Amino acid sequence: MGGRVTRVFRTFNVESRARKALTEAAGAVPSVPHRCSSRCAVADSSEIKEEIQRKDNRLLALLKDVYVESRDPPIRVKDGGSEHLPCKQEEKRLTKLGHFGALDVKKVSKGKISIVEALTLLNNHKLHPQIWTAEKIAAEYSLELKDVNSLLEFFIPFTIEEFPKETKKAIKS
Fold it and tell me: I need a surface site. Which of 92, 148, 151, 169 has the fewest CB within 10 A?
């Protein structure tokens, strides 16, 4: 609670206080320059100007001997004329469609599966492990065998069990 109160006072009228501090700093007296810097600059300025204006014939002769030859690399015309760089094209496969129609994913990259397909293959393997082996699943869904083995080992679908009515105990009051 105390932090909120102090924050209010700290941030009160911050912009105007900052402007005031900046204008005061701008109106401050600048520091005195070094005594040699002003005298040396005036004395050397005329010598420097003369040095700049004077032509050096030896350097001019060397410059005339320089010959630069430049060639641009040949221009390649892109096929298709699109402005975007081509991206890596992935092979796609059609999915085994689920029960959701328009919400289902239609195409999936090879080596990947959709959620509906994952649940379907896990359920098929659970119900018929002799028919739906890891090799058959890998071939059916274009997956790697080690990925399918890991999937079957670590992901197990839930089971719904219903108890018969006669085994339920009724609470009597």
Answer: 169
- In a domain? residue 90: no
* The pair of three-digit structure tokens given for residue 113, joined into one six-digit string: 């599966």
Question: What domain range includes position 139?
Answer: 111-159
Measure the CA angle with vertex 134, ends 130 and 135; round to 5°: 100
Whether 22 is in a domain gets the answer: no
Question: What is the dihedral sign for C-alpha 134, 139, 140, 142?
Answer: positive
> Which residues have a Cβ under 8 Å from the Cβ of 92 and sit 6 or more positions away?
107, 108, 109, 110
Number of domains comprising the chain:
1
DSSP per-residue string spanning 58-120? HHHHHHHH------PPPPPPPSS--SSPPPPPPPEEE----S-GGGS--EEETT---HHHHHH
pLDDT digits (tens, 9 = 90+) for 127-137: 999 999 999 99
Please, are residues 137 and 148 in contact by the beta-carbon 8 Å criterion? yes
Closest CA to 88 of 109, 63, 115, 112: 109
pLDDT of residue 98 exceeding 80: no
Does any domain span residue 9? Answer: no
